[in-house]
């Protein structure tokens, strides 16, 4: 999913840990039964669980829906660019 001017802001809705719907997704990085990794407007989102299934994927609006048993949602902070010395010295 590429950049698109019509993309919606990033929002999540989780129903009873079984249905997750979201907007503002720019890319599906990886998808497995136990983990889904998505690039969103606010960073990389890792969804963990079991029996995960991708139910909706809308390239135009950045909409994604995942069904299954969801056990964790985690945002990864972007890493600073450059080597370790640059990160150390800022």
Describe this structure as you would to a colleague.
The chain has 90 residues and is mainly β. The chain is 7% helix and 59% strand. It is built from 1 helix and 6 strands; from the N terminus they run E-E-E-E-E-E-H. A 6-stranded antiparallel beta sheet has the order 1-2-6-5-4-3, with no helix packed on it. The chain starts with 10 loop residues before the first strand and ends with a helix. The model is unreliable at 1-5 (pLDDT under 50).
Q: What general form does the structure show?
A: globular
* Low-pLDDT segments: 1-5
Distance between the termini: 32 Å
Helix proportion = under 10%
Q: From the alpha-carbon coordinates, what is the Rg to the nearest angstrom?
A: 15 Å
Please summarize the sheet with the most strands. Answer: 6 strands, antiparallel
Please count the beta strands (DSSP E, at least 2 residues each): 6
Fraction in beta strands: over 45%
Strand adjacency order, main sheet: 1-2-6-5-4-3
The helix-and-strand class reads mainly beta
Series of H and E elements: EEEEEEH
Mean pLDDT: 86
Helix count, per DSSP? 1
